[in-house]
Fold MFS transporter.
Amino acid sequence: MSNSVTGSGGRLTGRSWGVLLVLCGAIFLEGIDVAMLNVALPSIRADLGLSTGMLSGVVSAYVLGYGGFMLLGGRAADLLGHRRMFVLWLAVFLVFSGLGGLATEGWTLLLARFVTGVAAAFMAPAGLALVTSAFPEGPARTRALGVYAGTAAGGFSLGVVAGGALTSIGWRWVFFAPVVVSALILVAALVLVRDAGGERTSDGFDLAGAFTLTGAMLLLVYGVVRLERAGDGPFLTAGVFAAALVLLRLFTRVERRSPFPLVRPGILRTAPLVRVNAAALLFLAAFAGFQFLATLYFQELRGWSTMQTGLAMLVIGTDTVLAPVLTPRLVNRFGNTRVLFAGIVLAAVAYALFLPVGMDWTYAAMLPALCLLGLSFSLAYGPLTMAATDGVAEDEHGLAGGLLYTSMQFGAALGLSAVTAVDVAAGGGLGGLRAALIVPVAAAALGAAVIASGLRTRAGRNGTPPDATAPAESATSATPAA
């Protein structure tokens, strides 16, 4: 039973907008937190005297916490309550972000970023589940998810600008600003956000599955992070991946025998859900790789400041405006799959336009690629979020959200590792950057191919657009979206 906050006919009321803004604020905070830190890293190293390895660890610690605990966080939200998990881990996020701002040594910063990543891993799927439970399936949910996804995507793009501005005042404000924002969101969440109306499931908690899955995810993320330095202990990296695969195998055996599995095996055999998560992984791999290379090009090759770099990439943030307005209308008319396909194709075109980049390029020459990238995010990010839970039973929305965000996190980590490895192998400089730019083009093209495989099978028999929004027969019988 859904605890809808919409008015008659599914229209968004004042309270529903308030709930949506609270949940959007949290996902925006998560995205902007990551982007701001990346800009502040050089200033942090200079002030605290961190080694290159320690500085890399600051980034990796968050990735480990986020990627390692995401699936556990999603299922915990389903079992223990979406609102309870959202509020609790938002408070943890607030406390440890503040600890990062007070850090005077590298280990304190590592601890703060790891726990902040864990907090985001529990908070993000709970927030997505709260959105889907608060807005009934149909145009209201499509519109709400369009706003939610646009806000999430905007956090990544606008965080670069905000990070540049705050770092110019002092790098500690990159941590303190999220404390202020998260405190406001926490107060509003306690007042406005309500959990689903139905009783929580009485299922037990699969501790063996939780330990084996979390261990496997931590090892997988750590292995991916190690790929950035391919020549640094290759046998250890291979051993990390081997251990992760052993734990994953053990996890699948535990789940088959568990009366209350952490991840229902059947959910991973749904072709549309697999397509959506594969596309999310590839889409974020392409974007994370491109953003890193673009920052490298602007700051190290062209000598631009952090503020100039942020302003140059600000145009990508147009998705924050376009996604809530444009995407829901297109999804209602053409369906998730077609809109998602168009968005990923545009991303591939944008990255391809950047391939011949040179030292004498003007900003006007870069602008078409950056504008197309903003439009592609407007078209793709929302449908990915919508499709993640479409057709999934409401008591598994946290798990479905966890799957989506895990795919995105792994994609971002893989994209960064791949472009770094190619850039180093190609000798760095402009030549290395151009070679590495092939990675985002290939990842986006492959993502488009994955979604294209579902276009024909999802076509409606009576001329209805594929997976266009329509009233669902039930939470368990609705057709997945992509």
User: Anything to note?
Assistant: The CA atoms of residues 333 and 468 lie 7 Å apart. The longest helix spans residues 14-48.
